[in-house]
Specification:
The complex is a heterotrimer of chains A (about 325), B (about 240) and C (about 290). Chain B has about 240 residues and is α/β, with parallel strands linked by helices. Helix content of chain B is about 40%, strand content about 25%. Chain B folds into two domains: about 160 residues, Rossmann fold (3-Layer(aba) Sandwich), CATH 3.40.50.300; about 60 residues. In chain B, the strands form two sheets. Chain B has a six-stranded mixed beta sheet, with helices on both faces. Chain B starts with a strand and ends with a helix. Chain C is about 75% helix and about 5% strand. Chain C is built from eleven helices and two strands, in the order ααααββααααααα. In chain C, strands 1-2 form a two-stranded antiparallel sheet. Classes of the chains: A mainly alpha (about 325), B alpha/beta (about 240), C mainly alpha (about 290).
Amino acid sequence: MAGASPDIARRNNLILAICVAAAVACLPLVVKDVYIQNMLVLTLMYAALSQSWNILSGYCGQISLGHALYFGIGAYATLLLFTKFGVLPWFGMVAGGAIAAVVAAAVGYPCFRLKGHYFVIATIVIAEAGLLLMLNWDWAGAAMGIEVPVRGDSWAKFQFARSKLPYFYFALGLALVAWIVTWKIEDSRWGYWWRAVKDNAEAAESLGVVVFRSKMAAAAVSAFLTAVGGGFYAQFVSYIDPESVMSFQFSLLMALPAVLGGIGTLWGPAVGAAILIPITEVTRSYAGGTGKGFDLIVYGLLVMGIALGRPEGIVGAFSARKRAKAA
Amino acid sequence: MSALLEVRDLTQRFGGLVANADVSIDVRVGEILGLIGPNGAGKSTLFNAIAGVRKPTEGRIGFAGRDVTDLAAPQRCALGIARTFQVVKSFETMSVVENVMVGAFARAASAREAREKARAVLEFTGLGARENAMAQELTPPEKRRLEVARALATEPKLLLLDEAMTGLTPAEARQGVELVRAIRERGVTIVMVEHVMEIVMPLVDRAIVLDLGRVIAEGAPADIVRDERVITAYLGERHRARDA
Amino acid sequence: MTGEAIIQSLASGLLMGLIYGLVAAGLALIFGLMDVVNFAHGEFLMTSMYAAFGLYLAFALDPLASAPFVAAAMFVFGAVVYLGLVRFAMSASANAGMVQIFATFGLAIVMRGLAQLLFTPDYRSIPHSWLGGKTLKVAGIFLPAPQLAGALVSLAAFGALWLVINRTDFGRALEATREDAGAVALVGIDKKRIFALGWGLGGALVGLAGAVLATFFYIYPDVGASFALIAYVTVALGGFGSVFGAFAAGILVGVVEAGTAFILPASLKYLGIYALYLLVVVLRPRGLFGSL
């Protein structure tokens, strides 16, 4: 009887995710406002990005504040391959993901020996170094950035000027894929090993977990998905420059939904994004448009409030209560 | 003679400090070996060298006919060496069964298989009823059991127990002793480090006494407790303790 | 590449390095004391710069004259941040490391927002200060006077800090607390009070740095960000928590920055610092002077 319960819980989770995705897919039937559609696209994108960040930082416990690097790599790879070599964005996004995964492994090789704050600062420093290099790389447009040449609406070229909806569905797909990847990994060897590494690396090693390789695997998966998100974002906004895709802001924006929703939980990033991104966007457009900084104040207070009030995140607090009730 | 573990001339230096000097020991298949000695005798250092935490400065370690001196802890685990920690190191944010699954994945292909193995080990170690509790909710003696369960889940040939009985009440220690015997019945060879002689002596087949980094005595428990050098070493500790 | 140019670049690197050391000192102090990285450190600096700017506007006070007042105000501010925020972040029940990072990040964002609200995102500068635009020529080397003054303030501050740490009761309590916060409670030292004073002292140091920078650097809401990253790198290089390690590392960072700008385009000058950081922590995971 007890034997089946985790499997049933997992299956129920999957069904729930598919139902939520289906319900979100129906939203455009009611939501016709372009501004809100735009917000939905961003919310879904950040759900996907934060889910990717959560794989390395939440499950494996390696707090990265440099994921903007992988986001930027995805964005630049997609646009450069398309504008310079005519490679369709679909392949560009995958190529960007692969490059990011390789870069993540190369970055991880020296850095995963670092502990605590040394590691966090290394991730920031490397992302900033990447930003500096892009700002000075003339072939890639340097500080001017690059623009998607308009070729008319087409799925093959992933361009849609008339309607936001194709972007919306792609972002939904991406969020769902990131969720399913996490779901799949959660109940696999890697999933358990990553959590063991996070909780106590020395004990994990004694149980046969190769800690270094575990971190590398988590970094590669996390960077791949983040870069695909970056490629999508480049197509969505159709113009990128280093500051607009690689600034520190993005690293923070990827982390915060997971922090709010619950670090190292399956639903945390999605729940966090659904709350955080609309609030951010609304404050920005209603109060921050004049550069007054209200949006930052609200946002910062929210982050402080989350960190202090709900250190385990919304999902974490919820499941702790459920466990307490069951016991 | 079939030695499962052979330690040859092992020396471990930390800067100028010599923690182990020319230690050579054999562990025979199927035995329970006690590694005892006063505080600072170098037990934990030797233990860590066998588990693969730190490479010895000099000397070799052989396990099941292989030289494992240069292998890291995870590789030694794969060959069949498992350990517990003196200060328990549970995976606090994971449930009891998940803790044990981490170990079970050393030999299991799928999560389902790992879960089944983990449950069987939990039944065996008497933690079956607690499988869904979070590790951080366990009592200290339960955490000690979890350490043992996790290590057993890797299906070791050799189990290293580092002061697994420390801090237990006499009743809990008796249960612990029974568990160690039951593990041996399953064909697992056991090396246990203990500081308190009273706990280990009735349990072990053989004891090795370390003092100041060297092996000073080796033999059956009955002989060890009468050994002059051992008594001096332990008495010396009591004197030192009184002076301090 | 003449020898004179190299010496010139070394000299300006040294001056800037001393200022970097001062910027990082408070961060190192707080980290050493209680293992907390203040991710709002850059915004502390930004606030100090605006404070100096405000005192200039209101009383026509030169930043060098207002530096003590800015430092005093930042002392209070630092202590308040500890008592009102960090104290609670440290007692978090879950994800303690994460909570500290994001609690101070949240504070940083709020401070930036407030700066935008109060002062707009415009770049400000203090047009007529005592030393602004002046240079000294010593043995053929040009030394910009504001940077020179900043470097001297930094030397004086570190000297004073050395005296405080080694010669006062507060300094001894500080040292004892950083070595073993649990044990000091037994000898009657109030840990929370020491922490609050430590944050105050950290704030005062960054206050001095802000006032010094205000004489020659633009003042804007995001100004803290670039200095903060340099400060983190400096603190990590010095060995987290070692105040005088930060002093030495600051000088190194300044010289490397100047050296990089000498070889590569100026826009890439931070690249040398980043490379230095990665190289050092990979080779010596505890920093250059870390003994932890």
